[in-house]
Structure to design on (616 residues):
């Protein structure tokens, strides 16, 4: 690492407008360019003492290595509230539990959702969505000063969906002493709200900052590709491409982890995917995260039973880090619920004997994942032959120029080589369709494999599944669907869209992160008869009424039906109260005609639409 940090300084110069906008929007000090043209206010690189503790990304390296040696994954729980005080209060409960269990953790602090928005171009959204989803940038610094991250190194969860934020968050981590910078989801899966080239370029810049400042990096994530219904092999290929960028950025592999998802459905498949990643990736560590429990009963014991299955996979697959989950189906967890989750996971780790499972299925499945990844990678990198996993070394990546690598990734993403069914970027084509077989493995539906990748290497569904039929518009009424506020959760609204299209409606789909007024205006422009809005961050209470209000101002409220869905409360403890209120007095206080919360069926939703639009 050069103490001169030329890349960091160059990037600050290139992105100074955004850095200034961030400073203003969130009221935190950031670097600036002095009158003499020099970069000022840039904290020293790690290792550096912050609040009495020497912070460095290498604190995570030590924990990850300890897990490897003891075959005991290190807990990586998520807990963050809006203010430093609240976060400290809830975290303290969790820290006490960890200390009682004698474990050191790697704490993952939820960050405010607005930190995913570009403060220069999206300031309106930032201002309207403050205070939801986790800690504020200011709160983050206060939290460190209060003792956050002292015993248990921490990271602020600010995913790089929005790549400007990746850069800013790497800088923030350097300021705050959080040891780990942003989660650099280079997200070749295409989710996110920025154009693809900006996304990849800025993710690269963020990794460069981390590399020069010894900040730990969570590179691209298998988990996120899994969320958008991608296959394991595709996820591996995308993670490898991010690693290519990390090598070019000069990151130490000891400061790098890949986040993995396990499903707990098929233990052998879970071990196989972990093995495929461990053997093929360059990063030294893996962070294993359980797959989401979509429709759990409102009983945390049920959740823990579900998550225990994944803890077993993480233990047997020898994960370095494991994310215990609590209140996944409700809102942001409490210290109490997270403590229970930590206890449960630690109990699985300590009580389970570390057996060596040598079922031939594991090796076979591992090779299947690697083969798919190599076929995707070969196509993305425009190789005229099939690459092999052993070839993907540091030297391999060094043969590319960084600009060339970025261009190859962007071209592959845009042309459908790197593809997943629910990729969210608007500048992408989507061709692939996947199906999860009974054995818990997601494979392609015949004829729906990634574009430009040799089909013979792609895993094809073993069950008899037909590609979904093209939908036909049979009704005159148009529907506008969008998420409102700083909300990037698009899976639910995507599914509602698919259900509406299957029912014969034309949908104007605005995806994630919209101003409420803009959604109403699009309805006016397109003469839609129904508007559906979503928010999972607990912003519905303030944002849904604004869609209603704008429709009224436009004189349209009598002709346009307004439905909403998602989560109205942010926190676990508030969620129930809202549900009870809707039950008692209806959704009128939200300004909408109907509300569909988590677990609602699409049939029920379409039924309501058909009734309202007279298509029954
Ligand atoms: C997947 C996921 C993500 C993915 C999103 C991927 C994507 N492209 O959508 C990623 C990893 C990116 C993510 C990021 C974050 N997430 Co998140 N995420 C989830 C998770 C695990 C699942 C959500 C999901 O897709 N569910 C499946 C769909 C089908 O369900 P659904 O959206 O509820 O939709 C149903 C109904 O609500 C309804 N519906 C929803 N919308 C609409 C709209 C209409 C019109 C209608 C009719 C119906 C309808 O229909 C569906 C059918 O049942 C949830 C936990 C959970 N179990 O919900 C957390 C969760 C929502 N996330 C959470 C948080 C805090 C975040 C972050 C802020 C974390 C951070 N600090 O960085 C960021 C948000 C960034 C941002 N700016 O938005 C919290 C939110 C807590 C809160 N209420 O504030 C949750 C609850 C997790 C938790 N307990 O901490 N997340």
């Amino acid at each position: 690492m050069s103490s001169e940090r030329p890349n960091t300084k160059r990037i600050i110069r290139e992105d100074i407008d955004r850095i200034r906008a961030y400073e203003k929007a969130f009221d935190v000090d950031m670097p600036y360019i002095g009158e003499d043209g020099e970069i000022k206010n840039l904290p020293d690189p790690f290792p550096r003492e912050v609040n009495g503790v020497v912070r460095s990304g290498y604190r995570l390296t030590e924990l990850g290595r300890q897990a490897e040696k003891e075959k005991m994954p290190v807990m990586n729980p998520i807990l963050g509230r809006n203010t430093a005080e609240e976060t400290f209060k809830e975290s303290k409960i969790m820290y006490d539990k960890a200390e009682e269990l004698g474990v050191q953790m790697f704490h993952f602090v939820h960050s405010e959702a607005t930190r995913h928005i570009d403060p220069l171009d999206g300031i309106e959204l930032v201002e309207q969505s403050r205070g939801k989803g986790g800690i504020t940038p200011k709160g983050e610094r206060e939290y460190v000063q209060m003792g956050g991250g002292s015993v248990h190194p921490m990271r602020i969860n600010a995913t790089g969906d929005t790549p400007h934020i990746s850069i800013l968050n790497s800088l923030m981590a350097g300021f705050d002493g959080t040891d780990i910078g942003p989660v650099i989801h280079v997200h070749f899966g295409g989710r996110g709200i920025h154009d693809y080239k900006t996304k990849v370029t800025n993710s690269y810049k963020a990794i460069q900052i981390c590399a020069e400042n010894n900040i730990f990096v969570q590179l691209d994530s298998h988990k996120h590709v899994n969320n958008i219904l991608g296959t394991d092999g595709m996820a591996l290929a995308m993670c490898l491409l991010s690693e290519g960028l990390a090598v070019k950025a000069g990151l130490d592999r000891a400061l790098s982890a890949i986040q993995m998802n396990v499903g707990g459905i098929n233990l052998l498949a879970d071990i196989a995917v972990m093995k495929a990643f461990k053997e093929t990736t360059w990063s030294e560590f893996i962070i294993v995260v359980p797959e989401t429990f979509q429709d759990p009963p409102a009983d945390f014991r049920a959740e823990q039973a579900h998550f225990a299955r994944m803890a077993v996979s993480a233990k047997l697959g020898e994960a370095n880090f494991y994310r215990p989950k609590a209140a996944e189906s409700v809102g942001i967890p409490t210290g109490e619920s997270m403590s229970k989750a930590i206890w449960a996971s630690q109990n699985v780790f300590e009580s389970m004997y570390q057996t060596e499972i040598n079922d031939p299925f594991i090796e076979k499945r591992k090779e299947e994942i690697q083969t798919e990844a190599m076929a995707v990678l070969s196509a993305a990198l425009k190789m005229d032959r099939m690459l092999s996993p052993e070839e993907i070394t540091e030297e391999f990546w060094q043969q590319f120029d960084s600009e060339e690598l970025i261009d190859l990734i962007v071209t592959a993403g845009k042309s459908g080589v790197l593809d997943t069914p629910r990729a969210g970027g608007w500048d992408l084509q989507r061709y692939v369709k996947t199906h999860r077989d009974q054995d818990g493995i997601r494979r392609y539906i015949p004829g729906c494999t990634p574009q430009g990748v040799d089909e013979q290497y792609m895993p094809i569904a073993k069950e008899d599944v037909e590609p979904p039929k093209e939908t036909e518009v049979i009704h005159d009424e148009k529907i506008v669907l969008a998420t409102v506020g700083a909300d990037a959760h698009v899976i639910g609204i995507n599914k509602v869209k698919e259900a509406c299209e299957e029912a014969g409606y034309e949908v104007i789909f605005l995806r994630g992160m919209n101003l409420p007024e803009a959604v109403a205006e699009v309805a006016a422009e397109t003469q839609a008869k129904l508007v559906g809005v979503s928010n999972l961050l607990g912003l519905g209470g303030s944002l849904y009424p604004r869609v209603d209000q704008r429709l009224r101002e436009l004189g349209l409220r009598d002709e346009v039906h307004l439905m909403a869905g998602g989560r109205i409360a942010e926190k676990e403890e508030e969620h129930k109260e809202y549900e009870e209120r809707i039950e008692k007095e209806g959704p009128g206080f939200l300004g909408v005609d109907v509300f569909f919360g988590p677990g609602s069926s699409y049939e029920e939703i379409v039924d309501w639409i058909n009734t309202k639009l007279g298509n029954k």
Summary: The chain has a mean pLDDT of 89. The CA atoms of residues 273 and 506 lie 39 Å apart.
